[in-house]
Amino acid sequence: MSQVNRLPKGGRVDRSQPLTFTFNGENYQGFAGDTLAAALLANGVDIVGRSFKYSRPRGIVAAGAEEPNAVLQIGSTESAQVPNVRATQQALYAGLVASSTNGWPNVKNDVMGILGKVGGGMMPPGFYYKTFMYPQNLWLTYEKYIRKAAGLGRAPLEVDPDIYDHLNQHCDVLVIGAGPAGLAAALVAGRSGARVILADEQEEFGGSLLDTRETLDGKPATEWVAKVIAELEKMPEVTLLPRATVNGYHDHNFLTIHQRLTDHLGEIAPRGQARHRVHRVRAKRVVLAAGAHERPLVYSNNDLPGNMLAGAVSTYVNRYGVAPGRQLVLSTNNDYAYRVVLDWLDAGQQVVAVADARSNPRGAWVEEARARGVRVLTGSAVVEARGNKRVSGARICAIDLKNHKVTSSGELVECDLIVSSGGYSPVVHLASHLGGKPTWREDILAFIPGEGFQKRHCAGAVNGVFGLGDVLADGFEAGAKAAAGAGCKVVEGSMPKTEKRKEEAAVALFQVPHEKSTSRAPKQFVDLQNDVTSAGIELATREGFESVEHVKRYTALGFGTDQGKLGNINGLAIAAKSMGISIAEMGTTMFRPNYTPVTFGAVAGRHCGPLFEPKRYTAMHRWHLEQGAEFEDVGQWKRPWYFPKRGEDMHAAVARECKAVRDSVGILDASTLGKIDIQGPDAREFLNRVYTNAWTKLDVGKARYGLMCKEDGMVFDDGVTACVGENHFIMTTTTGGAARVMEWLEIYHQTEWPELKVYFTSVTDHWATMTLSGPNSRKLLAEVTDIDLDKDAFPFMTWKEGLVGGVPARVFRISFTGELSYEVNVQADYALGVWEKIVEAGKKYNLTPYGTETMHVLRAEKGFIIIGQDTDGSVTPDDLNMGWCVGRNKPFSWIGWRGMNREDCLREDRKQLVGLKPIDPNKVLPEGAQLVFDPKQSIPMKMVGHVTSSYMSSTMGYSFAMAVVKGGLKRIGERVFAPLTDGSVIEAEICSSVFYDPKGDRQHV
Amino acid sequence: MSNVNVYKQRPDAARAESPLFHAGLDELARKGKSSAGVILREKKLLGHLVIRGDAKDPAFSGGVHSALGLELPVALTLVAKGDTSLQWLGPDEWLLIVPSGQEFEIEQRLRKALDGQHISVVNVSGGQTIVELSGTNARDVLMKSTTYDVHPSNFPVGKAVGSTFAKAGAVIRHTGEDTWELLIRRSFSDYIWLWLQDASAEYGLAVKA
Amino acid sequence: MLHIFCPHCGELRSEEEFHAKGQAHIPRPLEPNACTDEEWGDYIFFRDNPRGIHHELWVHAAGCRKYFNATRHTVSYEILETYRIGEKPTVTEATVGEKKATTAGVTA
């Protein structure tokens, strides 16, 4: 339980609040304010995982989002499991349970480790592809074990108890990163009156100022941070988002921020509170102040636990009061890295040596280190780390940068911590999400954001500005520009005073030379998370992968959750060197959202469970529920599918419902049909142009069925339209087609024929529709209406107005079942009452509610099509044998007419809609079954059509189907065959698609 | 006027169920929480008429004014007088909301005032309802629900916009400092009711009759 | 997520409120029956796919329900103008070269 690496004092942790936690089954203690990584280091935990491919032991390297190794599984219970959590970004809380993601059966004894250690050539890049891909069917077997052994984290098997949500934000200025540049920018923008959002991924605002040695206005920098935050907090239009990673930069300054609201409190959010929130931000201006990541140097065995980034060690010492070792060796090429030496000495630890690749470094911190007795070896570098499961020594040699050679036999020094710094890589990820190419600057040896289309301003380290004074000035300037760009009157900020310090330039060093060739030297890791080595990259270029994107895919450099944070630039430099080109010529790979992993919960937000997508209900839905209806999804609508009685299965229920309609009367909720009110003197002409048939002579009081085609002549919707006034029509559409048809009418009216005087208004939700169908429907309706239902007064395909159940109604005498039918339409607010009155009155007629399945069977018996089931966007009215519905002599060339007269549409051997009667009347053809003329032909058979609708008809006593068959209309009486997947074949006779009451006597009574 | 069918669709006396009747809002209102960040009320069973016409034609705007006593509102605005409000929906489309039962008489009055013009008036009363959200967190709930910027600097009182709402659509009307109205379609009302309960859970939701 | 200025509502709205309807300025032939199959096929099926300036038809589906045109740069996705049906674009491939479009906006 003892925190062996905790310094006696210092850090921003609260030592009065000890917290216990568990890692890989063992209990440890840390303090409030620790990250999990800081607490693990405080407890001397060296190994946090095994590497992905070679299964080498790995320790914590970094202190932020760039951490490649400490990617852990969190959660004490199954439902709370979260994979891929960076220990460096997870605040410690009491009772935290974490375990290594990689390493099976455990991190200390690893079966894969054997594979990794035996010879460097054992697993070159492409190994999985080359070895395991053949024979192909075995890959599935290999994959299971490889994935298990490599470990990629796992999703919980139980339902996540937490809630997540999304918030749509709009602001003048979004500031990304709350380090010195970001704070300065936010301050200026806020003072200028802008709506500001300041987002930072860390637990606290301040960024590098939280662990710097430098002062502002002569005081610790953290005091300035606290002052700025206090001022920002008072501004009503400033929103501060800590623990909020800006993960995606999308078009037109739309950015997504993943905020972890409660992850620092515990593994499950307090009741009622969202655990994560995604802010969907539209920003007039963006200030990108994402900072820079320190680059490690690439030397042999640089992945052994005890190899860390120089700056990360400063962070652990200054911010958390943790010294992850005793004897430190620094290998670097720049001045700024020396601060770790000073921090380490201040913490009372031993600095063994500094290896500086430069020949004569004389910067202020370098001299300060020398003055404090630190041994600085110039023109040198750590070429190799030594140790078993932890660094125990470093081999430092003189190197020749120009010729990439080791020039001395060097010396082996004893140490337990090697820190390296190869310079600083601006975090260009967000600036590149929209395709902006970063620009290489040789003077600072870094890529900075290139030109972008976005309204953004980069500030601070991301912009290649590193000195604290310059960073602050850059931040103030960017904040002012952004506020001005968003239309605010700028109020300047006041710069705090910074220290002046002599700093010298870095030299280019990425891969440190070794006495042996890259492929023979002990492994030099470039991308620790994906186990990519310098030798692997050289191999890739040797094998001809010259484009940076190809190198990436061949080696996995910068893949997955890592997104190239640590390894990218080193990898590019090595590839460039190997190919003899410059880094600028090499360029970077594409950076894609998300910057760091986002939980699925956060992606889904509130759109899950019953809110996954809208469910639409009719006014009579409650009644359907009370009757125990089963429901079918039709678009977003929930429609009653069938109404089973106790003990009935679907088949029995549908047979009963069908019989009731054919023998007496049934009632259907048809409210979901699309309804469009059309008014205007040109309404009739408009109908003539969008429907295939003629509307000129439809009198007021009548209704007509119509087909709609696209310009290509293919049917896309149908329905009945009634003329309710000379200039007034009510159009019905299919349930699924309602919105589509409305847009269709509008697009033609608004873009092609604006001169036609007509208006369209959707009344789908206003009218509720109930269909009474069956020979007793007239008698039943007569009991609840004052409308004269006499067959001459109210004939087929006409409509009337009157009271139904005491409510004003429009009643249409139309039929989709082939029976005498009435569609009663009332204002939806009154529909349930009317429905209940009809049901009450219908008892003596055995009025039976029926659902969509019965409706489908009954209409199919009559050969009536359903759009989207019997049509698929490739059938013309003639293909459907519905030529009677085509106005061939209409003066205007209506939509579809030209298209259906293309040569191809006139072929006689097109697939045409016909009826099929299985020879075995008990066999029901599966819908979608492919049809052939000759079942004995060899495979692949020549397919001549398919079944579109198929049912068992209890009315007729046999199975039947509708199908499209090549030249089917001329093949009535011939046989087709449906060879099924189980090897059986169903034989059927081609017949008319109208099976029941072909003369239509029943609907005309 | 005889060219169109103007039909009194609302019965004088009959049981009515508003789009949110199944939620039992009256019952919830009685149980009511005392302090809640969001207060919800259905303004139900009102008369809703969609009016179409040519805004550039003074005869149209004049006719509307003479029939309603309201100026034709310009883009993204709402004008109101007493219980009657008139809202811009599109360049040739407005929504008139009147007390329940008045829609038939007012449609006739409008048609008379606009006689001879190419216009359209459609009763959509049964197809939509208004949900009023008020309270200190009403705006937060809106931010979770719509991509439209509901900050008062962009969305002052008197503004009304059609936008997306969760995965459905809604017309959002800003009627008072902390008061907003959502005009929603009947068939989506259950979804939006569920959504609002969920989105306002962290602030507390109270229902007002 | 584009930010699109609706010329009827007079303000910028988020892409969710709109539906894209393909290339703009493709008038329906006035005499379809006089078109050859090839001409008709061109009208129905063939569209431009330029790298650069593209005139598109959009509808403000969740807003005012009106169709309008937008001139969009297919590389930068920048929307250079929106204009009503019946109006002509002011920004075209002829008036704006690739260069101007790619340097529009503020850069760091």
Automatic annotation (TrEMBL), chain A:
Domain called Aminomethyltransferase C-terminal: residue spans: 911-997
Q: Which GO terms describe its biological process?
A: tetrahydrofolate metabolic process
Q: Residues in domain SoxA A3?
A: 522-605
* Keyword field: Aminotransferase, Oxidoreductase, Transferase
The record's annotation in InterPro entries points to: 2Fe-2S-bd_N (IPR042204), FAD/NAD-bd_sf (IPR036188), FAD/NAD-binding_dom (IPR023753), GcvT/YgfZ/DmdA (IPR028896), GcvT/YgfZ_C (IPR029043), GcvT_C (IPR013977), GCVT_N (IPR006222), Sarcosine_oxidase_asu (IPR006277)
| FAD/NAD(P)-binding domain location | 172-482
Q: Domain (GCVT N-terminal): give its ranges.
A: 620-890
Give yes or no: UniProt keyword Lipoprotein. no
User: What is a single molecular function from GO for this protein?
Assistant: transaminase activity
Per the similarity annotation, which family is this? Belongs to the GcvT family.
The name this protein goes by in its record: Sarcosine oxidase subunit alpha
Source organism: Pseudomonas linyingensis
TrEMBL record, chain B:
SUPFAM superfamilies from the UniProt entry:
Folate-binding domain (SSF103025)
UniProt GO molecular function: sarcosine oxidase activity
Can you tell which superkingdom this protein's organism belongs to? Answer: Bacteria
Which GO terms fall under biological process for this protein?
sarcosine catabolic process
Cross-referenced Pfam families, in alphabetical order?
A: SoxG
Instruction: Spell out the InterPro entries in the cross-references.
Output: SoxG (IPR007375), SoxG_het (IPR006280), TrmE/GcvT-like (IPR027266)
Task: Supply the name of the protein.
Answer: Sarcosine oxidase subunit gamma
UniProtKB/TrEMBL annotation, chain C:
Any one GO MF term held by the record is:
sarcosine oxidase activity
Gene3D superfamilies given for it? Folate-binding superfamily
Q: Which InterPro entries match?
A: SoxD, SoxD_sf
| Pfam families noted in UniProt | SoxD
Biological process terms from the Gene Ontology for this record are: tetrahydrofolate metabolic process
Q: Which NCBIfam families match?
A: soxD (TIGR01374)
This chain belongs to the protein called Sarcosine oxidase subunit delta
Q: Which organism is it from?
A: Pseudomonas linyingensis
Instruction: Write the lineage as a comma-separated list.
Output: Bacteria, Pseudomonadati, Pseudomonadota, Gammaproteobacteria, Pseudomonadales
